[in-house]
Specification:
binds manganese (II) ion, binds nickel (II) ion, 7-stranded mixed beta sheet, globular, Metallo-beta-lactamase, Chain A
Length: 225
Amino acid sequence: MKFTFYGHACFGIETGGKKFLYDPFISANELAKDIDINSIEADYILLSHGHSDHVADVVAIAQRTNAQVIGAYEVVSWVQKQGVQNIHPLNFGSFNFEFGKVHFLPAWHSSAMPDGSYGGNPGGFLMHGGDLKYYYSGDTCLMMDMQLLPRYAKLDFAILPIGGNFTMDVDDAIIAADFIKCDKIIGVHFDTFGYIKIDHEQAKEKFKAAGKELILPKIGETITL
Ligand code: NI
Ligand code: MN
């Protein structure tokens, strides 16, 4: 299973012969200027919510790759209005896709589309795809609902926001890792804007002191999990 970081909260996961792209926000991210969105392949694009720092490049990538766009009904309906036909709308619950089961779960955040239209509720994805089980919380604060996750899956790893201000910070992400019973966390949603700049070494040390691992991939880096 390969994980590629494209900056902010955008990442690709390749598993079971399929490519999954999450929350594409690349071309407007100064830190990700070396990433060419035309080089990204995807079979599925998953959107946690409608904010522009999660959907900015979805239309361009979906139209070029014909990837299926998966997300909240309101979010994918907006994407469809931009000319993307291959969509799968969700609300909170689960669905068995051909690649495995997806639970679309609540996140405590907000959601509006880049043009200000209604974006439904923000969420996160629990993936029971292939041999691996992982969770991407989307933008959220720490929340008690995360304690439900171990009932569904023994997670191999999880992707959590750690930048604070708009989402959990490092300390809350450590508690979230306890809630979801997962010791391997990939941090996202940090450094992109002034409000969410973090000290990488201190963040890793805090996780280590809690008996957990925090992975902070470089933008463009692919790691094998
Ligand atoms: Ni957001
Ligand atoms: Mn965000």
